[in-house]
């Protein structure tokens, strides 16, 4: 009887660990990968270090991001260094809705 209870508790603990730790992390990874796959030239991005910029060129694993208004500040970086993406169409729609209010 005690071996059966031990196995049952191990299964329950593994199930709880899966649903509380592993599954949410996999969902977040899929969301991040989908965001990076939809990345396009002209998108506004935020890097892992907190810099805001605009994507000006994309290759397989790298992007070239332009920071600030200075056209000479272009830095190549890995796609994985991007944490947030804002599409230019979204910004235009938000500005129009704010002006109407």
UniProtKB/TrEMBL annotation:
Compartment annotation: Cell membrane
Main subcellular location of this protein, as a coarse class: membrane
Its membrane topology: Single-pass membrane protein
Keywords noted in UniProt: Cell membrane, Membrane, Protein transport, Translocation, Transmembrane, Transmembrane helix, Transport
Pfam families reported for this sequence: YajC
Record flagged with keyword Thylakoid: no
Sequence similarity: Belongs to the YajC family.
NCBIfam families: yajC
Protein's recorded name: Preprotein translocase subunit YajC
Source organism per UniProt: Fusicatenibacter saccharivorans
Lineage: Bacteria, Bacillati, Bacillota, Clostridia, Lachnospirales
């Amino acid at each position: 009887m005690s071996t059966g209870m031990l196995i049952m508790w191990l299964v329950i603990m593994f199930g709880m660990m899966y649903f509380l730790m592993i599954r949410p992390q996999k969902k977040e990874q899929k969301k991040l990968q989908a965001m990076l796959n939809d990345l396009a030239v002209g998108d506004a991005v935020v890097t892992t270090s907190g810099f805001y910029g605009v994507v000006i060129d994309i290759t397989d694993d790298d992007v070239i991001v332009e920071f600030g208004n200075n056209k000479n500040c272009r830095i190549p970086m890995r796609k994985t260094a991007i944490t947030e993406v804002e599409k230019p169409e979204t910004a235009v729609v938000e500005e129009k809705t704010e002006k109407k209010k």
